[in-house]
Write a structure and sequence with these properties.
The protein is 49% helix and 19% strand. The strands form 3 sheets. It has a 5-stranded mixed beta sheet with strand order 2-1-5-4-3, with helices on one face. The chain has a 5-stranded mixed beta sheet with strand order 7-8-6-11-12, with helices on both faces. Strands 9-10 form a two-stranded antiparallel sheet. The structure holds guanosine-5'-triphosphate. It comes from Pseudoduganella umbonata.
Length: 369
Amino acid sequence: MTDSVDDLAAENRALRERMAWMLEQAERNHDIMMRHQAFDLEIVGAGSFPELIGSIFSTLPVISELDSVTLSLVDEGDDIRTVMERLGVDFAAYPDLLFVAGTSQLGLDSEPKPLLGAYDAQRDGLRFPRAEPPLQSVAIVPLLRNRRVIGTLNLGSADPTRFTPSLGTDFVEHMASIIAICLENVISNEMLKYIGLTDSLTGVYNRRYLDRRLLEEIARARRQSYDLSFMYIDIDHFKRINDTLGHQGGDQVLREVASRIKGELRLSDALARFGGEEFVVLLIDADLDSAAFVAERIRAGIATAMIDLEGGVKVSITGSIGVACLSGAEGGGDVAADVAARELISHADEALYQAKAGGRNRVIRYATH
Ligand SMILES: Nc1nc2c(ncn2[C@@H]2O[C@H](COP(=O)(O)OP(=O)(O)OP(=O)(O)O)[C@@H](O)[C@H]2O)c(=O)[nH]1
C-alpha cells in the first residue's frame, strides 16, 4: 500500500516536473515568437538600405541567440555597391555584409534549399569572416525572390546541436523570405532614389540633387564656419561640336568632360550636370583661392588632351569656368540658406559670363565689388 502511494507520489512529482518543463518551453517559444514578430515589424519598416542591414545585424543575433549572422548578396556588375556608395553608404561599417558576383558563388545546391549542419572552416570560413567564439554549426538559408536567388542569410552558432541536418527548416525559411522581400524593396527604392538624383547621360548628379545638397552644405558650413565654393563650367562652342559631330558625338564629349572634371575632385566635392553643356561643382571647405586652383586644373584637363570619339575621330575642346565662394567667416550673413544658395550660384554664373566674354578657355573668380 505504502509502496503504491509512494509510486503515485513519485509519478505525480514527475508529471508535475514534466508539466513545468513544458510550460517553460511554451513560454520560451512564445517569447521567441514575440521577439521575431517584433523583428519582422522592425525590418518591414526599415526606410533605407543601411537601416535594414543595421537591424538585421544588430537585432537578429540577439533575438535568435546566435553567435554570428552574415548576409551574402549577389551583386552582378557591382550595381548595388556602386549605387549605395554613391548614396553615401559606408560599407566598412558592415563587415558582415558580403557580396558575390554570381549565384554560383553562394555555395548552394542546384535546388536552393537551406543547408544546416556542422561548421566547416573551408566551406564556411568566407561566409563568417569574423565569427567569435568559433562556430560549431551553421544554417545557410537562400534568400529567394520570385524563385530567383538574391543571396543567402548565414546563421552561425557555437552550439554544435543548434543546426543539424535533421532540423526542420520552416522557421529559418520564413525568416529568410521576409528578409529577402525587405532587401529587394529597399534596394529598388535606393535605386529609384539614385536614378532621381543623377543625370542618365553622364552618371553625375543632377540639378535636383545639387540644389538639395547645397542647402544642407550651407547649413553645415555655417555651423562649422568653413568656406564653400561653387564652380560653373561650360563647354565652349558646344553647338559647333553638335553641328559637326552630331548629337551622339556631342553626348560622348559630355561624358568625357564629366569624367575629366571628376578626376580633379575630392570625394567630398559634388559634381552635377545642370543641363545642356553646363556642369557645376560644389567644393566643401574650399576658399576662393583653392577653388580657383582646382578650376584651373579642370580647365587644363579639358583643354590639354584631345577627346577620342568612336570611329577614330579626335576632337579638341575647351571650357570656361566661373568660381564663387561663400565665406565661412561671414557665415553667409543673415540671409536664409536658400537665398545664400541662389546668390552663390548666380555669382558663379556671373563669373562664367565674364570668362566667356573675356575670350573663353579661362577661369574667372567672382569679385565682390
Ligand atoms: N549632344 C548634346 N547636346 C546638348 C545636350 N543638351 C544641350 N545640348 C546642346 O548644347 C548646345 C549649347 O549651345 P549654346 O548654349 O549656344 O552655347 P555654345 O555653343 O556652347 O557656346 P558658348 O557657351 O557661348 O561657348 C546646343 O547646341 C544644345 O543643343 C545634350 O544632352 N547632348
